[in-house]
Amino acid sequence: xxxxxxxxxIDDDKILSNMYKERLEISGYEAMVxxxxxxxxxxxxxxxxxVILLDLMIPKLNGYNVLATIKSDPEIKDIPVIILSALTRDxxxxxxxxxxxxxxxxxxxxxxxxxIKKIETVLAKKNI
Length: 128
Prior knowledge:
Elements: E1 6-10, H1 14-26, E2 30-34, H2 37-47, E3 51-54, H3 63-72, E4 81-85, H4 90-98, E5 103-106, H5 112-125
Parallel strand pairs: 1-2, 1-3, 3-4, 4-5
Helix pairs in contact: 2-3
């Protein structure tokens, strides 16, 4: 049996996070949720997920800071990060790409199956 790939969702929208968690589990992933940047970062070190779905506008430590911390730490910098945000500006998209994000999806424009497809694409690219 192959090991389930772990997805960590860091988003303060509990309804959306739990819906994605459920959809990911149905698709064969092990999914976890953190509702703020601080606990999300702690969970990354603890769980070493295969991929992270990260919202930008989250409490305690925003998504930009979480992304910067991940990408500057040799222990976790190779974990792919997909931004899943309500922010639609190109400046947000470009800034996260420059800081090492592996993808950017806008919540209002993305269906759950598209998010899962993006996760699969990123994992395949990284050979995870």
